[in-house]
Amino acid sequence: MHRHAASEPSPPGPPTSLADRLEAWRAGLAARSPDAARLAWLVELARRRPPPPPGWHTEANLVPGCLSRLWLAAEFRDGRCRFRCDSDSLVVRAVAGLLCELADNLPPGEILAAPADLPVRLGLDRLLTVSRRAAQARVWERIRDFARSHAEGRC
């Protein structure tokens, strides 16, 4: 697998804009072809993510309707939405993790300003089976729902 340091997405640290994050992810995906190489890159990034802390895999964090188990936790702190996910499927963990990293540590309004079909616009749907596309859509929907519930004037 080729490494392109300039196109590697940065882990969320100091807040950056969603537009900047999207640009970095698009560049990373575009630097890899064919689609199998893109998916392999996302899976490799997912393998490097630290596992969630013990006790984190709870029913409350479980996303219903997925063939594999997928957990998503959200937290609102200091005016920003925080997201973390895990799955027993590495592919689902990779795609859900990308969406969580895109939205993590952003204010609700910035997340809500992103298109509802953002995963499709990133081209992730081309990499996935129908059931995994549905899981990716659920994750993005839950991220947006969480942001909507914490948008100014709605707490």
Question: Can you offer a commentary on this structure?
Answer:
This protein is mainly α. It has 6 helices and 2 strands, in the order ααββαααα. The protein has helices at 18-30, 35-48, 90-103, 108-113, 118-121, 130-149, and strands at residues 70-77, 80-87. A two-stranded antiparallel ribbon has the order 1-2. Helix 1 (18-30) packs antiparallel against helix 3, helix 2 crosses helix 3 (90-103) and helix 3 packs parallel to helix 6 (130-149). The protein is globular, with a radius of gyration of 15 Å. The N and C termini lie far apart (45 Å).
Spell out the key features of this protein.
two-stranded antiparallel ribbon, mainly alpha, 10% strand, disordered N terminus, single chain, 155 residues
Radius of gyration: 15 Å
Spans of at least 5 consecutive residues whose pLDDT stays below 50 are 1-7
Look at the structure and give the mean pLDDT: 87
Describe the global form.
Answer: globular
Provide the succession of SSEs: HHEEHHHH
Strand content: 5-15%
Secondary-structure content class: mainly alpha
Strand order of the largest sheet: 1-2
Number of helices: 6
For the sheet with most strands, the description reads: 2 strands, antiparallel
**Total number of beta strands:** 2
**First-last Cα distance:** 45 Å
Helix content: 40-55%
